[in-house]
Amino acid sequence: MGWFPCSGDSFRKAKNKKKMKMQQKTLDRINSIPDKLKMNSSLRVKEASEDGASDQITAQTLTFRELAAATKNFRSECLLGEGGFGRVYKGYLESINQVSRLLNIGMMQVILCLLQDVAIKQLDRNGVQGNREFLVEVLMLSLLHHPNLVNLIGYCADGDQRLLVYEYMPLGSVEDHLHDLSPGKKPLDWNTRMKIAAGAARGLEYLHDKAKPPVIYRDLKCSNILLDRGYHPKLSDFGLAKLGPVGDNTHVSTRVMGTYGYCAPEYAKTGQLTLKSDVYSFGVVLLEILSGRKAVDTSKAAAEQSLVAWARPLFQDRTRHSLIADPELQGQYPPRGFYQALAVAAMCVHEQPDMRPVIADVVTALAYLASQKYESDAEKVQSPCLDPGTPTRTKRDKERKLNGGRGSERERTRKLK
Ligand SMILES: Nc1ncnc2c1ncn2[C@@H]1O[C@H](COP(=O)(O)OP(=O)(O)OP(=O)(O)O)[C@@H](O)[C@H]1O
Ligand SMILES: [Mg+2]
């Protein structure tokens, strides 16, 4: 899916002279930053280190020659996919964090070269995105660091070549696991879906609440949530990100950009961007995770093409909630948990931005749902002697020990009911 300027009108307005001057000023400011990074490639940025966020980063500058070598000259067999920015290749780079070692094995000296797998995104010079998105991406990912944001390893600005080098995400994007599954590919189970939703929400919470000033992501969608080992989600693609409002301001005004189906209605209409615009996009993502449907699907009947428009009347009617559930789940989900997750999605896609929750509250709800492990019928058959959800004796004992003999979190929650 590509980016779009949501309205032609706003695009024409953007051509207005005054605005152009201001944009040029901003561009000049952003332009100067990668130069600073180049001069000091070990630029350190102090960041909030709560919830595992690292307090320093190092974005490396790499040469085009190094990246060509890493991808066997951008050979088609290394191609991972293509988006609005350009093609994405898998590559192997000499590990930046670990120094190559000289090993003495008997009479032989062996140079142990540690290779790191990376994803290399090459700007398509004829594409819809350009230098500005490249600069914003480098700037944002150099300053922001969190376990639920993809890590920028380095970048290359050689002549007119613009490349971004990320840590490689072995399980691809959430989109790859939800829609148009190839035969034999296992659909995501309920627990994994909740883990992904909670992790993506945490990434967004970091941008909204921990970054100073807050960052509005503007491009939250399933193809931008990448999956590390164990389906650990990380947000990617920050080329559209904007620094959020500061002080008494409630919004920033900007040319409308985003992806059809994910864009908050008030932002599409007015160009006024708030943190709640991201919360709306998150609601659409959560609906996709629950329903397995695409945000926009033109292959469906008119009334079902927009996921939000199709799902909204169903939110009100609890007897019809099961119609929303992804058929790929084959009924293997907790009805109560499903209802609660759906209620979160419904609040996030509320027409009125003020009625949408803040992302911190979404994190609290989804972290709880993710902690409630669901046992599928197949798993229950494998352990028929135990009450579903009953931890094994040793596990239960361990939990008791960790909780000072008070029993597990789960047991305590049960007692409260
Ligand atoms: N770090 C990464 N590790 C592994 N695969 C990646 C990585 N980054 C991107 N990809 C894959 O490359 C493909 C293209 O990604 P890209 O972000 O360029 O486009 P997109 O998200 O599909 O669309 P858009 O340009 O609208 O964001 C996707 O299939 C994605 O899964
Ligand atoms: Mg993307």
Automatic annotation (TrEMBL):
Coiled coil: none annotated. GO terms for biological process: pollen tube guidance. It comes from the Eukaryota. The keyword DNA repair does not apply. SUPFAM superfamilies: Protein kinase-like (PK-like). Residues 74-369 form the Protein kinase domain. CDD domains: STKc_IRAK (cd14066). It is a lipid-anchor. Residues 375-417 are annotated as: Disordered. Gene3D superfamilies: Phosphorylase Kinase, domain 1 (3.30.200.20), Transferase(Phosphotransferase) domain 1 (1.10.510.10). Residues 394-417 have a biased composition (Basic and acidic residues). Its main location: membrane. GO terms for molecular function: ATP binding; protein serine/threonine kinase activity. Keywords: ATP-binding, Cell membrane, Kinase, Lipoprotein, Membrane, Nucleotide-binding, Serine/threonine-protein kinase, Transferase. Pfam families: PK_Tyr_Ser-Thr. The keyword Membrane applies. It is found in: Cell membrane. GO terms for cellular component: plasma membrane; pollen tube tip. Belongs to the protein kinase superfamily. Ser/Thr protein kinase family. This is Protein kinase domain-containing protein. It comes from Citrus unshiu (Satsuma mandarin).
